[in-house]
Amino acid sequence: MLAATGRPAAQPRVAGDQLTLLLSLVPYLIDQGRVTVSEVAEHFGLTPERVRGLVSLIALSGIPGETHQYLHGDLFDILWDEFENNDRIVLTHQVAIDDSPRFSAREAAALIAGLQYLSALPHNTDTDAIASLMAKLTRGASAPPTQVAVAQRDAGTTRDIVQTSLSTGMQVEFDYLNARGGQEHRLVDPLRIESVDSDWYLRGWCHLREAVRTFRLDRMSSPRVTAAPRSTHPADLLLPDTLFQASAEDIDVRLELATAALPLLADYHPERSEPIGSGARTRTTLRVAHAHALKRLVTGLAGIVTVLEPAESRAVVADWAAAGLAQYSGNESTSEEG
Question: Which Pfam families does the UniProt record give (predicted)?
Fold first, then answer.
């Protein structure tokens, strides 16, 4: 009968909730240093009475010492006068927390760099959570992390204009530098803005091509939101899951790379992939709009991919790499020989 009422079954859930709260509360108190009961209650969405009960429970928690008994130094402790007289929580002794693994300075710096990139995404610019997490990583690392700054390739103006056109439902127009180096004026019904690595793209209906096209924001110039609303398109107009789509004018390029790196080419729709020898390396075919488009691909996967054919594509990539190498002083002879 008791089982039918659900009361005994509820106890593990309550105990689990209590443990979860304690595991969240202790790091919070350590991070804050000195905090009032009301501030803790507001942060965790609890009543002040519940907070006081949890704090009292913390003082009874710890790890038994060598005697396998809970002595004074084996338990958490607080400033009881502050707690009882001023309703303020100050931890004075903590157990086992200092022994937990911490991020190294290098690991913390890498995570902070990633968070800086996330903070630049449109949906994250109005939140304080990322900044708070970066501050915690800085304080909690085993040593002060190296100061890093993630450079944004797009200053934000073009992205802001495109984002405005999306939110207002208006057309956007701009001059666009295509893969062949030609400049064209485009009028686009924006459908989506997204990023791949550090590059931002607009996907929309291009009135010049009368089809869905993908545009890199850093190739746009003089963008502006027009006064014309976005056109109405058929209900069956769907954006493909992948960012890049093939066209009849594309050329086939044969590449070789490590098999483990093959997923890096997923957005390019690799075809006719064939393992070589033991399978550690793979040869595959990509369709690209122009041989010059390989420059960006090779830059992003430097040392990973090798262009096999056609010969024109190999020559374009080789000439581009040699020109880049020649920019470094003392390497002119190397570039001529290679």
Answer: HTH_PafC, WCX, WYL
